[in-house]
Design a protein that fits this description.
- 38% of the residues lie in helices and 22% in strands.
- It has 159 residues and is α+β, with helices and mostly antiparallel strands.
- Strands 1-3-5-4-2 form a 5-stranded antiparallel β-sheet, with helices on both faces.
- Helix 1 crosses helix 3.
- The chain is globular.
């Protein structure tokens, strides 16, 4: 398993851009649209089911809603305290080619959830998207930097 965690972004527009990336069927590595986005789930984000990955206009609207929900979560949990420097953290967890052949999208998501929970403890708003557009199954995540108690995740604890 290989992880790639990045500082997400400070602004709502950054959150929207990443959410849209997670749910759209881009021409990525010459994959067919239904091969890219295999599973989308969220935690603490009251979102409707995502639109078809090939409907870019609907995906943009859904991504806007997802970004707004992450921002709302953060404002609510911060309870008037200053917003964090990073609204969210993003990243991906990739599995080897051989492991990918034996994993379902649901199992890949389960493993990714466990890994992220160890690094970013606490209950937080998270968008998950399992992609199968490469030979290695991978899970993208967009997680609020703020947990349900209003604490901001400190990247110095990332391992």
């Amino acid at each position: 398993m290989i992880t790639d965690t990045k500082k997400g972004g400070q602004y709502l527009s950054d959150a929207v851009t990443y959410a849209v990336y997670c749910i759209t069927a881009k021409d990525h590595h010459e994959a067919k649209p239904n091969e890219r986005v295999l599973l989308v789930q969220s935690e603490n984000l009251l979102l409707p089911p995502p639109p078809p990955a090939s409907d870019l206009k609907a995906c943009r609207a859904w991504g806007q809603l997802a970004g707004m929900k992450i921002e709302e979560w953060t404002k609510d949990k911060r309870s008037g305290r200053p917003m964090p420097k990073s609204l969210f953290q993003s990243g991906s967890i990739s599995f080897s080619e051989s492991d990918s052949k034996n994993l379902t999208p649901a199992k890949a998501l389960e493993i990714a959830r466990e890994a992220v929970a160890e690094v970013m403890p606490g209950n937080r708003a998270i968008l998950w998207s399992v992609h199968g557009d490469t030979t290695c199954l991978h899970v993208h995540f967009e997680a609020s930097s703020t947990d349900d108690g209003g604490a901001v995740w400190n990247p110095r604890f990332d391992f």
